[in-house]
Amino acid sequence: MIISTGTASGKSLAYLTPAVASCLDGGTILYLTPTKALAADQLRGLRELRITQLRAACFDGDTPFEERTWVRQHANYVLTNPDMLHRSILPRHAQWSSFFRRLRMVVIDECHGYRGVFGSHVAQILRRLRRVCARYNSRPTFLLASATASEPGAFGMRLTGLEMDEVTVDASPKGSTTIALWEPPLTELRGEGGAPVRRTATAEAADLLADLVLADVRTLAFVRSRRGAETVALTARAKLADVAFSLSTRHPRPSTPRHPNTTSPTPPETDPTTNHHRPPSSTAHPTPLETDLTPSQQPGTAKPARTTQPTPPETDPALNHQPGTAKPTDTAQPAPQEPAPTTTHQPPARATQPTPPETDPALNHQPGTAEPASLATPGPSRTTSELSAAAPAVSTSGREVPAADPASESSLRWALPDAPAQPDWADLPNKIAAYRAGYLAEDRRLLEKALRSGTIMGLATTNALELGVDVSGLDAVLIAGWPGTRASLWQQAGRAGRDGQDALAVLIARDDPLDTYLVHHPQALFGQPVEAIVLDPDNPYVLGPHLCAAAAEIPLTDDDLPIFGTTTSTVLDDLVSQGLLRRRPAGWFWTKRERATDLADIRGGGGAPIQVVESSTGRLLGSVDEPSAHTTVHTGAVYLHQGETFLVELLDLEAGVALVSSATPDFTTFARDITDISILATQRSHPLGPGTLHFGEVEVTRQVVSYLKRRLQSGEMLGDEPLDLPPRTLRTRAVWWTLPASAVAPLAEAGIDLGGAAHAAEHASIGLLPLFATCDRWDIGGVSTELHADTGLLTVFVYDGHEGGAGFAERGYARAADWLTATREAITSCECERGCPSCIQSPKCGNGNEPLDKRGAVRLLNTLLSSQQNATTSAQ
Ligand SMILES: [Zn+2]
Ligand SMILES: [Zn+2]
Question: Which ligand is in closest contact with the Cα of 759?
Fold first, then answer.
């Protein structure tokens, strides 16, 4: 059975009831979740039931060795994850015999997380589990809980290999959620090829997070990368530190609202970096929450955005520095500008600006103690305030006119009008934290607890939390960058507003074609079915290692073959010829001394991991799998570890080590690679317009050749540094389209650069494929050429970035017409003239985004999509 409904719709109750009943009846339950954190949360819930016969226990990497024996022998409700099942429980099934004998039910929670290559691995682990159960004569019921997905029954069947009933009707009570689609503004900064640069989603998210926390709105910010989440937390904390600092230097003024958001009179319109072009669907709130929060600044860190800010220091009371206090960066500021008269969402009090700094006792900085740079930028956070629905309108002149708005004050719990309360102010930054998978168990628990108790009001996280930690009582969710799928979007948005309360969710677009497309096409989000969850258990690169592991658990016989899929016998022959398995009359045997489970790296990667070591202390910070090392810890990369920033001094692939040192750079790094592709086998083909669409096997040679440095706050490009790393070869699957010379000749005659057009179409189509397959653009890659050696034609490839393929390119083949139509619309709807990161530029382009032809790409796609009416339906 698979239950596929929204967040907080009661899925847990649906499996807990029969599961606990089975335990009371003498059975055992195996509960699987993708993350340890969710298992810990579930365990807490089970213990709160206070049922003595229920002996629930976690069995994961954090479980102390001495407890493991107890769990195996006595627990009747075991919470674990696929990794532990793969590495520990199944290989030692004999030690679990009494548990397996009584196994009644396997609960697979948050199973939508099992997609792509990881999902394919989990699918094979579940087949091994079924085989081990059969050995102990148990036939457990599989009960799957998933976020909403298309065709959940089919997905569940692919995942488990079993027929599934599906439950998809969600009748749970819900408050309403206001969804805002938020496009960061184009800045005056220029990137590659002079393209305009948008303000980054993480910078906008940090502003919003700080503002919401100040307004007492309990907020979770989802950021796609671990690095991004930590950047958002650091930035938002720095803003709160600035607020705390400015509060702590004020004299107590009993009747004065202490809201710190009252010191920034500069209208957003004067700040080009914050000039938000709100999409029509935006629910921007007209009530400003003025803050003097500043973009994150570590002391001494240069701030790129500031140099473009025209805000005159003279009009900003926050800039009331004592004579002699250095304000080096302010010298770069352009001349004062008039506040824009067209402001519609500023309070009347705005017009009373500027408050003479001299009269403001709140800004009485001690000489030498001020961090002027950090106060010099009232900037971005102001514009975010329109969204802070919970924020009262506090007059910017409120400090001088005590009766600003008494009602508003009461909602600001942290603002303590009558008490100096320094400790609370000093503690303000600690209300924001970062969370990610990979933290130590104790740290995770502390963080989860703090969020539940309200000690922490704002949390920036990767999707570690998406996979299920039960955080209740959230008011708002910020989603920095399209989370990859509508399913994830609704899952993340559903985090806010538990207990039937109304909530706010903001999707902040990244500088990316898909994000741009979505904030301009809300119809692609609302009223659309969610995506199907894609996985490919038949991938031979996935299946092979699990057949070895299965043979090591219990020798394989002919009877086992149907369990593992139709390609099993071919893959077994390969394993025998490679000397990994031995064929004997009784079946296939694993005869090596090594552990067979080491062959499968189920969370991706492969290759020996690279150790990340702090050079000055020799401290081991963590490890990165070898393929990722080329892109994440190459020499010169910025590497974040638990909120600390490091610069990679040296990546030594032979020694398997990356030496890093603590640093506070104001830029991020993006590795870029160049790619060659050759076609090994064409499996399917279909006409598309005047051209042809193909799906098949390819060999891809990728080499990380350089890395791009971009400013942290602004996204401005700083440079492209060369790297010397070896190429890597990948055998995978791809979808590609070709156009005959007769179709492209008219375009060439019209002066279109065909190479640039194909390249631009490739970039944008990589960006848009995630709308149709549950992948992200980093799971896939592309190659385009005016003339490919294997086809002899203009060809654009998009391939799965995982050995053996992951099902994404196959999905692109099946949905090609819709996918390429959306690609064309993403390009045409971007307001840039010649191409930018929101449409046709790619951050990982190994060719430095050259050549690119935006108008040519549209013409090329028009040609390809002409007379393609029936392509979608017949492509499958
Ligand atoms: Zn653009
Ligand atoms: Zn490129």
Answer: 2
* 835 CA to centre of ligand 2 in angstroms: 13
DSSP letter string, 780-841: EEEEEESS-TTTSSEEEEEEESSTT--SHHHHHHHTHHHHHHHHHHHHHH---SS--TTTT-
pLDDT of residue 9: 80
Q: Which residues surround ligand 2, an ion (CB under 5 A)?
A: 845, 847
CA of 847 to the centre of ligand 2 (A): 5
pLDDT, residue 437, reads 56
Gap from CA of 308 to ligand 1 centroid (Å): 21
Give the distance (Å) from ligand 1 centre to CA of residue 839: 4
Give the ligand whose atoms come closest to the C-alpha of residue 842.
2
HEC secondary structure over 122-187: HHHHHHHHHHHHHHCCCCCEEEEEECCCECHHHHHHHHHCCCCCEECCCCCCCCCEEEEEECCCEE
pLDDT digits (tens, 9 = 90+) for 557-594: 999 999 998 889 989 998 999 899 999 999 999 988 88
Q: Which residues of 176-189 are buried (b: 16+ CB within 10 A; e: fewer)?
A: ebbbbbbbbbbbeb
Q: Report the separation in Å between the CA atom of 750 and the middle of ligand 1, taken as the mean of its atom positions.
A: 22
The rounded distance, in Å, linking the Cα atoms of 461 and 468 is 12
Query: Structure tokens of 464?
Result: 């570690």
Looking at the CA of 849, which ligand is closest? 2
pLDDT in tens, 392-437: 332 222 232 233 333 333 222 233 333 334 446 778 888 998 876 5
Q: Tokens at residue 177, please?
A: 């959620």
First to last CA, the chain: 27
**Structure token digits, residue 838:** 């929101």
Q: Which amino acid is at 258?
A: R
Q: What would the 3-class secondary structure string for 535-571 be?
A: ECCCCHHHHHHHHHHHHHHCCECHHHHHHHCCCHHHH
**CA angle 321-326-332, nearest 5°?**
100
Per residue in 474-508, pLDDT (tens digit) is: 899 999 988 767 877 888 888 887 667 789 999 99
Residue type, 253: R
